[in-house]
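#struct-help
A.M.: can someone run this one for me? Single chain, 238 residues.
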Amino acid sequence: MVFRSLIRTFAPDMLPFDFHIDFVNLLFKGILIGIIASAPMGPVGILCVQRTLNKGRWYGFVTGIGAAISDIIYALITGFGMSFVMNMVNNSRYQFLLQILGSIMLLAFGIYCYRSNPMKNMHVSGKQKGTLIHNGVTAFFVTFSNPLIIFLFIAMYAQFSFVVPNHPVEMCLGYLSIPFGALLWWYGLTWLVDKIRGIFDTSGILIINKVIGSVVIIFSLIVLFGTVFNLYKLPNYY
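D.P.: on it. Structure tokens below:
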């Protein structure tokens, strides 16, 4: 708020559009969405771990970069679709119902993540290192072959009230923060696996998945409870 007031007072010409969106809040949501979308140990997550163990940390990290590029494509597709819908449905009651639905969908995702065994559908990493570009490209296609992630983005956008129609500049920054959050996750994961490579095995992958599932379940329940009992107000940007 202070930053916003200073700009309006001393440099009003810097604002060619109505500046009424909390950028920090939007960027934080985008980073969180990127982390949640990347964290579950699906096929590309296991591939990242395998390459980190067998080829080295940076091979694992470029695997994550390939996945992040695929994720942002689906994130943009989902965002444009939801923006179109929200332009037609822009009253607070429908926003409330949309956030409830998003919380329920994210809760279901957390339960699925907790109970699933990612080792059943694992992609085995080849023995040859290959180039970093080759490892990134193959990870991109592994991730891109699963369009169901769109439903996860729908749930997160709805729960976080992330999509703000008719504000392209703000939304561009918000969308850019999604791959940043994804890269934070892949960097942290490859760092951890590389540090404990001597003791890391398949049980570690299952533990990570259960921890992630538990966090998503708890978080979605908190937000669902807060929304139902009106513990906080939904933002209104219309």
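A.M.: thanks! The two ends are 19 Å apart (CA to CA).
D.P.: also worth noting: Residues 1-20 have pLDDT under 50 and may be disordered.
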